Automatic annotation (TrEMBL), chains A, B, C, D, E, F:
It is an enzyme of class 5 (isomerase). It holds the Pfam family Tautomerase. Its EC number is 5.3.2.-. This is Tautomerase.
């Protein structure tokens, strides 16, 4: 029954996502006493203009770091 | 007040989504004692590379089924 | 594959929720070309102090309506 | 620790989003006794075909209003 | 149309939440060109045993800090 | 930056959750090129009356299995 949502900054490759699906499913089954077939994982890619920490979008923070 | 999120594998037509909005709103009002104006439904399309069951993305499972 | 979340003001009975599960699953299958076994629905009860419209919690709006 | 998700009809500019990030972070810190570094805000843009009120998508409601 | 979810460590008072609802609604309307009646905000309280940073629940981190 | 939500049928112990936090964080860092401090995981417990598969709540399915 675990339904998992993983919100990520966009840019990971499909290979990275596939490796993550396998390893996270393994980790859930090893600790939560469930079967792989019960595990659903969803990735939500976030653009750096749509995610903010401390009131500033990641896009803006990166731009300021690159041209202070 | 029902706020509903429907996460779907991408690919449904707008007609299918419009029919779903109407029928699900009807179902909610018939069972939860609420008015249509109170119902908000949001569709979230998922790509088959971003959704995994049993540790494998739907994209990968489909590819393996098509070329075993 | 539809994974549905229904956020509701708390207070519905289990009978109402069970009726909603059946009717919403029917509505999704009739419009989105999917099978009942593929449909997962989750109810999230919200307390009236934790949900606000127009800047005011439902609890507060109700209290003001009852004692203007 | 506040993790905030803001689901919006798509179409806002990055400037509007950046102004929102700053003002909402300020509002949270002023009322919830937390620090800006603890606040994460995520914007989720919704297309008008994927969001429905009263059983009708916003796209359809807008189209009907423009050509009754 | 903004639908906002604010996930918080549990423990805030209703007064804090009410103040947050008002100030965040104001912040959204001032920056996103929307009306208060269009804004819905939902608080989700998280217990410190159900939220983890860097692989450790907040409950555990707090306990270790209090009795190193 | 990964922000993870794990929706579970309620009933897991805090030990199981703590083991899951550690192993899932490890799995994410090993596959997504991120640091443990960037990973936030949230558990959402679901009661069996609030989660349905194929139109029937888990509570009902369990009851029918126990007394067919």
């Amino acid at each position: 029954m675990p339904i998992v949502t993983v919100a990520l900054m966009e840019g990971r490759t499909q290979e990275q996502k596939d490796a993550m699906f396998a390893r996270v499913t393994e980790a859930l089954c090893a600790t939560l006493d469930c079967q792989p077939e019960q595990v659903r994982i969803r990735v939500e890619d976030m653009s750096d203009g749509d995610f903010a920490v401390a009131g500033k979008s990641v896009a803006r923070s990166n731009a300021e770091r690159e041209s202070p």
